[in-house]
Amino acid sequence: MGLAYNVYLDSHRVYGCKTCKTHLSNHDDIISRNFRGQHGKAYLFDMVVNITESEPNERNMTTGKHVVRDIHCRQCKETVGWKYDKAYEQAEKYKEGKFILEAELLCTVT
Ligand SMILES: [Zn+2]
Hints:
The chain contains no helices and ten strands. The protein is mainly β. The chain has one domain (14-109): Beta Complex (Metal Binding Protein, Guanine Nucleotide Exchange Factor, Chain A). The strands form two sheets. Strands 3, 4, 5, 6, 7, 8 and 9 form a seven-stranded antiparallel beta sheet that branches. Strands 2-1-10 form a three-stranded antiparallel beta sheet, with no helix packed on it. A hairpin with a 5-residue loop joins strand 7 and strand 8 (79-87). The mean pLDDT is 93. Bound molecules: zinc ion (ZN). Residues 17, 19-20, 22, 73, 75-76, 78 line the site of zinc ion (ZN).
């Protein structure tokens, strides 16, 4: 039971960490595919599991200033995306508490 703390997702389509295949989120939890990360295409997720969060820091993005935290795979420590703590623009508030995972860093686990 070495991975006892890892959450095992059981939907028809699960996204995992590309490096170690640890489950990170469900296909059904994607809010938007219209995002870009450091490695290209990125998705906004409602819920992500098996990650650790860094300290928050302010970042200027194309959509304005946000407070974000990098998120890392809990198993292999690879950076997989970031979480939005706070958005200053009213139009961007829906992202607060949500997660970005970079498509390039994900694999599909079926
Ligand atoms: Zn991993």
